[in-house]
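Notes from hallway chat w/ T.B., transcribed later so I don't forget. T.B. wanted the structure written out for a chain they're using in a teaching module, and asked if we could keep both sequence and structure tokens in one place. Agreed to drop them here.
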Amino acid sequence: MNYIDLHIHTQKCKSGDGNGRVISTSNLIKKLLSNHVKVASITNHNKFDLEEFTKITEEEPELVIFPGIELDVSFDDGNIKHIVLISDPIVARDFHQEFSNDKARDYDNFQLEYPLFIEKVKKFQREKIIVIPHFLDKDKKRALSIVEKEKLTNDLLGYVVILETGKLKSMGIINSHNEISIFGSDIKNWRDYDREVKKLPQLKFQIDSFGKFYELASNPSIFVKTALNEMKKLDISIENSSLQLFNDVNVIFGEKGSGKTIILKNYIIPFLQESGYSLVFHEGKDYQRSYDEIISKIGEQLQIDQELKQKSISKLSDILLYKERFSAEFVDAYLAYHKEEKISKNAKLIRLTETNYSKVISENFDSIFVETESRLKKISATKNVNREVREATDESFNALDMELNKLISDVVLLSHQALKVIFSISQTDKLISNVKSVLDKKTGKKSKPNNIGFHKLVSDRCKFAIACSELIDSLEKHKKLKRITLGELPNKGEIFVNVSIEVLDKEEKFIKGSPFDRNRISSNRDLIKKISGFSWSDFSRINSLFSAEELGKHAEEYIDDWIKKVVSIVRKDGLQYEPSEGEKSILSITGIIENTSYDCYIFDEIERGLGHKYISDYLIPKLMFLRDLGKMVIVSTHNANIAISTLPSQSVFCNYQGDDSEHIYYSGNMYSNELISIDDIDSLVWEKEALKHLEGSGEMFGVRRNIWKLKD
């Protein structure tokens, strides 16, 4: 949100001015820009510093700043009143000459007689100067009375006179009585400006010159129409007419059953969808469905890594299926071989019985399959990106696609070769053993064992230990957490959705809300403990390390038990929170508003279940934030606060009163105070219809004509 501040002090001129008002030009520029003050005027007491003004405009040409001064004006009865003057920068030198060309001026005691003040103002063309007297609650001692205000406006007939009040509320009251009012910071200490600026009027339309500001102040209706014509908008066909919607806030209002939902569902939403706009639609009555959909979509932002999961399953499977032959079997085989003496001469000639074979390989079929699948998925993902980014006729597309196809062939070929090697090594040992077994039966000779098994034993044990380590590492890699802002609740603060991938810990204990099966936590925890705490000394009992019950489950079942995706609602302190039904209604809205990825945001009776304070403090600023991002916001509402304080560029009045209704839809805005039927035949007064159909509209009409709320 951007602001306007036409009452700023930068120097200590009077003795009553504190040192807190003193600020350098560079720091002033930083203060204004950091607080999104887009239009400003320096109005020191009885002084316009032309040199200071020139320096600011040279340092920051983008800042719209007007020459200004706050004068002590002596009325006929001797009472001193404060009147601010601002002028077009084009006449800055003339402005300085008339109102501040006295180097020896005593700022404390200086006063300009009222007749001379009027005379000096009239030296300027009407469109080059604006008069802003203090009025009513703005420093009551120095503020104009109603009688003095009438005298001033009559004496300066044709000039723009804007009344400066002490509060925004007073500003609204005055504006609602067909007068023009504004409110400035009148800053006492620049340390407080970051806070004080939030009380200032907001900018609705772009003001990039004094001329534009004057146009707004002198003829708001024409200015608003011109500004709206320059804004980005869509023309939506409704029967034989069309309705304009702006890339801004658009409000739809009217009685229940007047056609608000129909215009949304039958005309606006289909048009936007067919035009390719991404949109989200929220209906107040279906808050539970909206809430569930929001939580579900947020939950989809984080998924269990399936490739990593398959690796975990493969490693656990290797661990659970691991078995060792007893060392005694090796010794018995060699003893039997050396004890054989009564053998035939022919048997001695068969040298195959003396063959040694001890080749081993660290890979197995499963590891090759997992690795190959992983590589093919990565190639497939690259092919998808190629298709998304490039046209099929693009030479670069075809070249990369051909290379990726070749890479697929190479990956498959490599896996085939690896599988052949694994098969060859494993089957060669079996083949030699089988041949020896046949020869033993035929000859009665005990063949020499292929190998003592020590090499294979060491290799297998290393593979097992590595598998344990890699499994624990892979489980750790699964752990992820993503926190997404869901919204803000009254008295609760910010609420978040935590989407996490959680892994059963070896010290896991069941607590309320745990994603892990209460009945299986103990057994699963014990198995993880055995694997994570495995040491080389445990090989002495390796074949009994896992119980029959533990070996009775497949690795995939365990991994499904150990790895869970969790979606939880939490407060800012991380504690889980269960929203009430009313709070779900609020969060169903905030969950949409906090997501800035849509082009259009459409709300039907957004105010349902929301308190006035929440609407003012959270909802309205958020809707205006979406507007400032260039989003189209469409709100169907009965709430005057929403319909007015969001500063909509378009107000659509629905007036269906039965099948004989001549004019159903009207469009216009609160600034021009008119509503025109979309067939351009009939017209209504915006204020009259708004007072009749918007709840709480009476108290909001003090805000209606604050068209100083101008937006970039």
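Follow-up for T.B.: The chain is about 45% helix and 15% strand. Might be a good example for the class.
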